[in-house]
Amino acid sequence: MFAVNGVRFAECTFDAGESPLKESSDLLVEGCLFKWKYPLWYCDNVAVRNSTFFDTARAGVWYTRNISFDDCVIQAPKTFRRTSRLTLNNVVMPNAAETMWNCSDVTLNNVTAQGTYFAMGCRHIECDNLVLTGDYCFDGAEDVTLRNCKLLSKDSFWNCRDVRVYDSFISGEYLCWNAHNVTLVNCTVESLQGLCYVDNLKLVNCKFINTTRALEYSTVDAQIDGSIDNIVNPSGGRIVADGIGELTLDERYIDPTKTTVVVKEKK
């Protein structure tokens, strides 16, 4: 089926034999099983529905443009690379290691994924109800929006730019290091040494659970809902909280006058 155009595949099994639909376009794939590697490389305009990609269908979708997946299970790792205009709705990825690298214009709705280095280097990505388990997600990504998501991930959002997270839960060490323009709104965070080395960090009505050594060397505008256990040497900005367990402003490393800290009076 190399380079086919305008074909509907229904309840087909693609077994031994790599790259079965390479260079194809205008495809509708429904209720199919993929059991071999590289099934959808260099394709255009593909809709995949109610289909399953087994572990052996590795590196399945690379260099493809305008492709959507609805109600699918993708068991294979490294599935998406350098793919543009990618949409996933109601998709489960139990082995999403090294998946979705350097993709652009990505939309994820109701996606569950488990695997390290998810969405590295992605650009223009929007996620709603993403549940992700796996370290180092979104490394080097740009223009990222998350809503109603849950991330259990160490070192998430490293080296990122223009990140917006709303109404979400994030747990993991070393959150968001070396990032630029990061905004968290109505989020709950649990982290060791989280949100450090961030340029232009904005926190709006966020809660911090079991979070220590936070905000080190970050410029920050923070409105914290409740208390935070420990803040160490922010580079500058304003921090407002109901309580701070321990605050370090060490003039050997930062200029304490550049940071305004307000602890609200208890009523």
How would you describe what is shown here?
This protein has 267 residues and is mainly beta. The protein has one domain. The protein has strands at residues 8-10, 13-14, 25-30, 33-34, 44-49, 52-53, 61-62, 65-74, 80-81, 84-93, 104-114, 123-133, 142-147, 150-152, 161-166, 169-171, 180-185, 188-190, 199-208, 219-224, 227-232, 236-241, 243-248, 259-263. Strands 12-13-15-17-19-18-16-14 form an eight-stranded parallel β-barrel. The protein is elongated and about 70 Å long. The termini are far apart. The model has no long low-confidence stretch (mean pLDDT 97).
Q: Major sheet: order of its strands?
A: 12-13-15-17-19-18-16-14
- Roughly what fraction of the amino acids lie in strands? over 45%
The count of β-strands is 24
Number of domains: 1
Mean pLDDT: 97
Order of helices and strands: EEEEEEEEEEEEEEEEEEEEEEEE
Total DSSP helices: 0
Q: What portion of residues is helical?
A: under 10%
Major beta sheet summary:
8 strands, parallel, barrel
CA radius of gyration: 21 Å
Spans of 5+ residues with little confidence (pLDDT < 50)?
none
Distance between the termini: 71 Å
Q: In one word, what is the shape?
A: elongated
